[in-house]
Design brief:
By secondary structure, the protein is an alpha/beta fold. It has two domains: 201 residues, Isopropylmalate Dehydrogenase, CATH 3.40.718.10; 136 residues, Isopropylmalate Dehydrogenase, CATH 3.40.718.10. Helix content is 41%, strand content 20%. The strands form three sheets. The protein has a ten-stranded mixed sheet, with helices on both faces. The longest helix is centred in the N-terminal third of the chain and has 19 residues. The model has no long low-confidence stretch (mean pLDDT 96). It binds 3-isopropylmalic acid and manganese (II) ion. Manganese (II) ion binds next to helix 9.
Length: 355
C-alpha cells in the first residue's frame, strides 16, 4: 500500500528526531512492502522565520491532502517574546483545531527494560504499568473566550458542550473495551460547572453504551495524587484539555523519561497527527543526543491508528524493546548499557526491524 505522510519537523530537536522516525518507517516499508510518501511542510518558529507566520495555509493544505501527519516539536527562546497569538505554540493549537484532532492519546508505558528509570518505588510498579491518557484536545479553556477586561485584569474561559464530551468519552470507552475495561474520568465537579456537565455526560454514555466498563470519577487534585500513590489502579484516564495536559506530563515519568512518551491526536475517521509529547528542547538542538523513541513510538501509533497496520506496529515496538536491552540515549542511560546518539538509536531500531 501507498501512504501519504505530511512531515512537519518544526523547531529545536524536531528535525533530528523526525528523521529517525522516518528511518524507522522506511525500514517498515522495506520489510513489509509498503510505500511511505513524505511531503515536508513548515510549522512553528521555522515557519515564522521563513514566511512570517507559524501555520501557513500551504501547510494545512498539505496536511489535508495526506493520510496522516508526523510532527516534531515547535517553539524556542527565539520566539518567546512574540505576543500570544503569534507564538509557535499558537500554530500547534491552530493545526489541532483546523484538522479536528479532538482526541489526544498519550500512552504512559513502563518498559521492563526501563524500570530502573521510573522514580516510583519498585513495589508500586511491580509487573509493569500501562496507562492510556485520553485528553480532549480542541475544547475547554485552551479554546474558550479570552481577553482583557481592562489593563489590569485578564480572563480565560472553560467551555464544554455535551457533543464534545460525548465524542471524547466514546474514544476512551472504546479503548477501554480493548484493554482492561476500566475508565477513570477526571474533573473538578466539586467546583466547576463544566465539570458537572462532563461527569453527567460521561455517566450517561457509560450507562447507555458501555455498561461492561468499570467507571470511576476522580477530582483532578486527587487524580494527580493517586498517579503517584497507586498508579496500577489506572487503565484509561479520560480528561479535558487542561487537566490532560498536566496529568500526561506527570504520567510520563512512569515511562522513565519524557523522551519515551509518544502521542496520537485523532480526528473522526482514521486521520491523525503523531508527535512526541515532549517539546523542542532548544538547548539540545543539533547535538544528536536526544532520545528519538517518543517520536518513533508516535510513528508506531500512526501505523496502528491511521493505517491499521498492527503487525508492523508490533514490529516497531519489539525493535524498540530489543534496542533498549543494550543501547541507551543519555536521558535513559544506565550502568552496563551502551551510550548512543539520536541517529544511532534510530539505526539500531531500523536494523532490528529488518533483521
Ligand atoms: C502539549 C504541549 C502543548 C499543550 C503546548 C506546547 C501548547 O504542552 O502538547 O502537551 O499545552 O497542549
Ligand atoms: Mn503539555
Amino acid at each position: 500500500m501507498n501512504y501519504k505522510i505530511a512531515v512537519l519537523k518544526g523547531d529545536g530537536i524536531g528535525p533530528e528526531i523526525v528523521d529517525e522516525a522516518i528511518k524507522v518507517l522506511n525500514a517498515v516499508g522495506e520489510k513489509f512492502g509498503h510505500e511511505f510518501e513524505y511531503t515536508e511542510a513548515l510549522i512553528g518558529g521555522a515557519a515564522i522565520d521563513a514566511v512570517g507566520e507559524g501555520l501557513p495555509q500551504e501547510t494545512l493544505d498539505i496536511c489535508h491532502a495526506s493520510d496522516a501527519v508526523l510532527l516534531g516539536a515547535v517553539g524556542g527562546p527565539k520566539w518567546d517574546d512574540l505576543p500570544g497569538d503569534k507564538r509557535p505554540e499558537k500554530a500547534l493549537l491552530g493545526i489541532r483545531q483546523d484538522l479536528g484532532l479532538f482526541a489526544n492519546l498519550r500512552p504512559a508505558i513502563m518498559f521492563d527494560q526501563l524500570k530502573d528509570a521510573c522514580p516510583l518505588k519498585p513495589e508500586k510498579v511491580e509487573g509493569g504499568l500501562d496507562i492510556m491518557m485520553v485528553r480532549e484536545l480542541t475544547g475547554g479553556i485552551y479554546f474558550g473566550e479570552r481577553g482583557y477586561i481592562d489593563e489590569n485584569t485578564a480572563y480565560d474561559t472553560e467551555k464544554y458542550s455535551v457533543y464534545e464530551i460525548e465524542r471524547i468519552a466514546r474514544v476512551a470507552f472504546d479503548l477501554a473495551m480493548k484493554r482492561d475495561k476500566k475508565v477513570t474520568s477526571v474533573d473538578k465537579a466539586n467546583v466547576l460547572e463544566t465539570s458537572r456537565l462532563w461527569r453527567k455526560t460521561v455517566e450517561r454514555i457509560h450507562a447507555e453504551e458501555y455498561p461492561e466498563v468499570e467507571l470511576d470519577h476522580y477530582y483532578v487534585d486527587n487524580a494527580a495524587m493517586q498517579l503517584m500513590k497507586s498508579p496500577k489502579q489506572f487503565d484509561v484516564v479520560l480528561t479535558g484539555n487542561m487537566f490532560g495536559d498536566i496529568l500526561s506530563d506527570e504520567a510520563s515519568q512512569i515511562a522513565g523519561s519524557l523522551g519515551m512518551l509518544p502521542s496520537a491526536s485523532l480526528a473522526t475517521g482514521n486521520f491523525g497527527m503523531y508527535e512526541p509529547s515532549h517539546g523542542s528542547a532548544p538547548k539540545y538542538t543539533g547535538l544528536n543526543v536526544s532520545n528519538p523513541i517518543a517520536t518513533i513510538m508516535s510513528a508506531q501509533m500512526m501505523l496502528k491508528y491511521s493505517f491499521g497496520l498492527n503487525e508492523e506496529a508490533d514490529a516497531v515496538e519489539n525493535a524498540i524493546k530489543k534496542a533498549l536491552d543494550q543501547y541507551r540515549t543519555r536521558d535513559i542511560m544506565a550502568e552496563g548499557m551502551t551510550l548512543c546518539s539520536t541517529s544511532e538509536m534510530g539505526d539500531r531500531i531500523a536494523e532490528l526491524i529488518l533483521a
